[in-house]
Design a protein that fits this description.
226 residues; alpha/beta; 5-stranded parallel beta sheet; 3-stranded antiparallel beta sheet; 8 strands; 50% helix; binds cytidine-5'-monophosphate
Length: 226
C-alpha cells in the first residue's frame, strides 16, 4: 500500500507524513531528503560550490555520485538517516545553504530520474507513506491514497519562520514570505515534474487546522483500510 502526500514548502507534509506512517505502522519516505542529499553530495564531494555549477551538473557526475548504490535511505522508529558511501550525512541536509541550492538542482531531469530509482527501490517491498512534490503525480501515480496538503502563503511563511528560529536563523515574516514565494515559484514552474495537484488527490488545506486536526482529517480517508 502506498500513500502519497504532496504539497508546497512548509505545508507541514513531512510532519504529517511521519505521524501517519507511525500511526499506521508504515515506512516513511521523505523524498525531499533524497534531493537534499544529492545537493549536499555534489557540493561537498564533487566541488559544485556555486549556483552556476549546481544549475549545470554533468550527467557523468550525477550518475557517479547520485545513485542508489552510494546513497542509502534508512527509516527506523528513531528517525531517518541518509548515508553516502556509509558516511552518515543526515545532519548536513537541512541547512540554509542546502535549502537554497536544492530547488535549483531538483529541476534537473537526470537528478529526478536517479531519485525516482531510489524511491522505487525503497518502496519495492514495503507499505510506504511518501511525501514530496511529485509523489502522487510522477513517482507513484497508482498510489492507493493521494493527498495534496497546502496552506496559505502567510501561514506557511509563519511556520517556516519558526523553523528557522529553532535553527538559530532570525528572519522577518516579510523575508519568510519572499523565500517561500521564491521556492513555490521554482517548484511549480519547472519544466520537469512541477508541483501540481496529482490526479484524484484529496486536497487538505491546513491553514486553520492544528497538526492533530490535519492528521485526523487525513486518517478519516485511510482508516477504513486498516
Ligand atoms: O520537502 P523539502 O523542502 O525538504 O524538499 C526540498 C526541495 O527538494 C524542494 O524545495 C524541491 O525543490 C525538491 N523536491 C522535489 N521533489 C520532491 C521533493 C522535493 O523537487 N518530490
Amino acid at each position: 500500500m502506498i500513500i502519497t502526500i504532496d504539497g508546497p514548502v512548509a505545508s507541514g507534509k513531512s510532519t504529517v507524513a511521519l505521524r501517519i506512517a507511525t500511526e499506521l505502522g508504515m515506512y516513511y519516505v521523505c523524498s525531499g531528503l533524497l534531493y537534499r542529499a544529492c545537493t549536499y553530495i555534489l557540493r561537498h564531494y564533487a566541488g559544485y560550490k556555486t549556483e552556476h555549477a549546481i544549475t549545470h551538473p554533468s550527467q557523468k557526475d550525477i550518475e557517479e555520485y547520485c545513485n542508489q548504490y552510494r546513497i542509502r535511505y534508512v527509516y527506523t522508529i528513531h528517525g531517518i538517516q541518509i548515508f553516502f558511501d556509509n558516511h552518515d550525512i543526515t545532519e548536513y541536509l537541512k541547512t540554509a545553504t542546502i535549502d537554497h541550492y536544492v530547488s535549483l538542482l531538483s529541476t534537473h531531469e537526470a537528478i529526478r530520474i536517479e531519485v525516482h530509482i531510489m524511491q522505487k527501490a525503497i518502496a519495492q517491498d514495503k507499505d510506504i507513506v511518501a511525501d514530496g512534490r511529485d509523489m502522487g503525480s510522477v513517482a507513484f501515480p497508482d498510489a492507493e491514497y493521494k493527498f495534496f496538503l497546502t496552506a496559505s502563503v502567510e501561514e506557511r511563511a509563519g511556520r517556516w519562520q519558526k523553523d528557522q528560529e529553532k535553527k538559530g536563523n532570525n528572519v522577518s515574516l516579510q523575508q519568510a514570505i519572499e523565500a517561500i514565494t521564491q521556492r513555490d515559484y521554482r517548484d511549480t514552474t519547472r519544466a520537469v515534474s512541477p508541483l501540481v495537484v496529482p490526479a484524484h488527490a484529496i486536497i487538505i488545506d491546513s491553514t486553520n487546522l492544528t497538526l492533530d486536526q490535519t492528521v485526523q482529517e487525513m486518517l478519516k480517508y485511510i482508516k477504513p483500510w486498516k
